Amino acid sequence: MFPEYRDLISRLKTEDAHFSRLFERHNELDHQISNMETGVTPADAFAIESLKKEKLLLKDKIYVVLRKAHETA
């Protein structure tokens, strides 16, 4: 996710607690969704879709933080 910001992501994960929480939650959702889609964790289509929407919202929030941090750097 956002390879052009790889270094900035690494830095923000250690320096910005809010960013770190957003990033960690996004990764957790990614893992949950993967488990649901592969049948490891039972879930219906609605549950998967709901988590995908939350993940997308987090991705948007992460991008906003990255753009602001990049512009001020």
UniProtKB/TrEMBL annotation:
It comes from the Bacteria. Pfam families: DUF465. InterPro entries: DUF465, DUF465_sf. Gene3D superfamilies: 6.10.280.50. This is DUF465 domain-containing protein.
